[in-house]
Each structure stands twice: as C-alpha cells, then as structure tokens.
Design a protein that fits this description.
- This protein is an all-alpha fold.
- The protein has one domain.
- 77% of the residues lie in helices and 0% in strands.
C-alpha cells in the first residue's frame, strides 16, 4: 500500500465534507464566528477573555479526539479533525488579516495625502 497516496486520498475525501456541511451550515468562517459568539455568551462568567475562532476549532478538535478515545475506528471523527485543521489554518490567516486592519486603523494619525 502506498501510504502517501492513501493519506492524500483521505484528505481529499475529508475536504469534500466541508462542501457538504457548507450547504447545511453555511460558510465555515461565518459558522465559526457564530459558534464563537454563542460560546462567549454561554461561557462569559467562566472565561478570563473571549474565545477566538481558532479557539473554537481547537475545542472542536478536542471534542472529536475525546470521541475517538471511545470509538477509535470512527472515520467520521477522523475526517472532521482533518476538516477542522484546514478551517483552523484559514481562520488563523483571517484573524491575522483582521488584526492588521485594526492595527492600521489604530495607528492612523489623520494624515492622508490621497496617494494609495
């Protein structure tokens, strides 16, 4: 068995789940924003700071790992971990981009010369 080929096949198969679930739950980034908002409301008295969307994916991966501890052959949980990992990369990049925008706004001194 070509293990690298098998790994690639499993990643491709898992990535198809993002599209399938997207039709049910909407855009993955928007969905994780919604989850983050709800969890921050539900946990507001238990957290020292708000959760980020990357925290959401980390917690969802932990949930899937806990399930795999009881059902180690459950392929759906394994595929979900692959998907959440991919979503985490996208969310991390999105958060970095958003932080860059905020930093630019905060550092703006009001001097605009009209040249971009």
């Amino acid at each position: 068995m070509d293990i690298e080929k098998k790994i690639r096949e499993e990643i491709v198969e898992a990535s198809k789940l993002i599209n399938d679930r997207g039709s049910s739950y909407g855009n993955a980034i928007d969905n994780h924003e919604d989850i983050k908002t709800l969890w921050n409301v539900l946990l507001r008295n238990k957290l020292s700071s708000d959760l980020s969307t990357v925290d959401v994916t980390t917690l969802l991966i932990a949930l899937k790992l806990a399930r795999l501890m009881k059902s180690p052959d459950h392929k759906d949980s394994m595929q979900d971990i692959i998907c959440y990992s991919g979503i985490m990369v996208a969310l991390s990049e999105h958060e970095k981009y958003q932080k860059g925008i905020v930093k630019n706004i905060e550092s703006f001194k009001g001097d605009y010369d009209g040249n971009d």
